[in-house]
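lol so apparently i was supposed to do this last week
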Amino acid sequence: MPPLITHLYTADPSAHVFEGKVYIYPSHDRETDIQFNDNGDQYDMEDYHVFSTESLDPLTPVVDHGVVLHAKDVPWVSKQLWAPDAAFKNGKYYLYFPARDKEGIFRIGVAVGDKPEGPFTPDPDPIKGSYSIDPASFVDDDGNAYIYFGGLWGGQLQCYQGGHDVFDPSWSGPKEPSGAGVHALTPRVAKLTGDMRQFDGEVQEVVILAPETGEKILADDHDRRFFEAAWMHKRGGVYYFSYSTGDTHYLCYATGTSPLGPFTYGGRILEPVLGWTTHHSIVEFQEKWYLFHHDCELSGGVDHLRSVKVKEIFYDKDGKIVTEKPE
Ligand code: FUB
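anyway here it is w/ beta-L-arabinofuranose bound
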């Protein structure tokens, strides 16, 4: 299946339906001399483009709305604009983005716009109490909004084992806890304030349970433990929390009855694609469900030069997502 966007490298697509169209908020990958490493230094992005399309028919063009935010316009950012997301509430559009601050610590920022295609004006400081990467916002039917986040290794989630506001640099790099009986690190969720620009209350851990034991997924269970790329969608009253397993390269999901969890592991959404990273979003459009994701086919397998793709996904009669193979 060909990529949706071929004139730029794009990754980490967060897709939403706004104003009757699909809007895609991806990372913008670029060439770099930085060598591949497990800390992700080669993902050296500096701006975001927004894309939209009126139809997911392959013949319908995807419109590039140009640069909507650049690192140089965000006072707290030093580098690495990684996977963003967007939300709509109360007539405004919000672009959430992770980046390293001037101390090299990942934080999450927010930028606000009047239109889904931006432009977006960034708040001068990151969201207070934010850390790590891969923000994914979710506005529930009751109007409450949440933001999920976190990523291991280069995403620094493992540096917060002592508390949400205690960064332990000794855990920096491609490391994570392991060993018999050790629980996997959890993704994080926070409710958003009414103005969508701060956390409303404490950051919470997103618990993912193994269905066969009812216990938390273990750290050594690399086929199922959370690594990065959180996403939330709701279908038929069920909350689907989905994510990447990182070094085993699966997109997986877990289901629950509350946006805050706990969630029970449900299975794989997508088998490994070409490239180390796998990242996604799931959205309903014109009564079908779609998986947006990326791979490295267009660049011939260069890990930091990825391209966004889309494919329809299906649920069985019990609401289980049918596992897809990359195309
Ligand atoms: O694009 C940079 C990082 O790679 C993202 O934040 C991760 O989810 C992975 O896709």
